[in-house]
TrEMBL record:
Localization terms from the record: Membrane
GO cellular component, one term: membrane
Residue ranges of the TM segments: 14-42, 54-75, 87-113, 134-155, 161-182
GO terms, biological process: lipid biosynthetic process
Name of this protein: Fatty acid hydroxylase domain-containing protein
InterPro entries tied to this protein: Fatty_acid_hydroxylase, Sterol_Desaturase_Related
GO molecular function (one): oxidoreductase activity
Keywords: Membrane, Transmembrane, Transmembrane helix
Fatty acid hydroxylase domain mapped to chain residues: 95-230
Keyword Transcription regulation: no
Amino acid sequence: MQAFFAYLERLDLVFLFLLFLLENAAIALVAVLLGFALDGLLPEMKRLISLKEIYWTCSTIFFNTLVTLTGYLLFKYGFIVFHLESSLLSIVIDFVVLIFAMDLLMYVFHRVIHQLSFVYRYHDLHHAYDTPTAISLFVLHPIEVLGFGSLWLLLLFAVDFSIYAVVIYLVLNVAMGIIGHLRKEFVPAALKHHECLQWLANTGFHVGHHQHEQHNFGFYTKVWDRLFGTLK
Ligand SMILES: [Zn+2]
Ligand SMILES: [Zn+2]
C-alpha cells in the first residue's frame, strides 16, 4: 500500500484526475454490468437503459472523481490520516464503525433531504424509478453526489481509520448499491426470514424506499429505520 501511495505522490494533478476518473468509470461499468447480470437482463440492456441514464451516470462519475481527488489531496496534505499498518482486529473494528457511522449519517442526511422541498428537488431525480435497475444507482444530481461525498470525507477527517477497512468498506458500498437497485431479490428465498435480514439491508428494503418514500432511509442496515420507526 505504501508503494502505491508513493507512486501517486509522483503524479501531477491532471494525471491524478484522469486516473481517478478511470477508476470511477470502471467501478460504474462493472456495477452496471454485474447488476444487469444478476437480474438476468444483460441481453436487454440496450432496450432498458436510456440516454438520460447514461448522461447522469457520466455526470456522477465526474463528480465522484472530484470527491476522490479531494479525498486524496486531504490525505496527501495530512488532513485525513489512514493507518497503513493495522492488526486484523483493528481492521474489523474500523470496518464495523465505518458501516454503522456512514449508515447513520446517510440515514439522517437522506431523511432530511426528504423533508426539505428545496433540496428534495435534487433527490427527486433518483426517485424517478419505482422499479430501479443497477444504472439507477448512478442517476443522481451533482448536489447529491457532492453532499454524500462531503459526508464521507468529513467522517474520514474526523476519525483515523485503517486503509484496509476503508477499501473493504468502499467495495461493500458499491455492492450494497447494486443489491439495492435490482429487479430480483438478491437474498435467496430460503433466507428471507433469517434473523440477520431483520437488521441488514436487502434488495426489497431499498426498492421499498423507491416505492414508499417516507420509509427505509438506511443504506446498509435496517438498524436506524427500526430504531426511528421508519421501517416498512
Ligand atoms: Zn435508490
Ligand atoms: Zn430517497
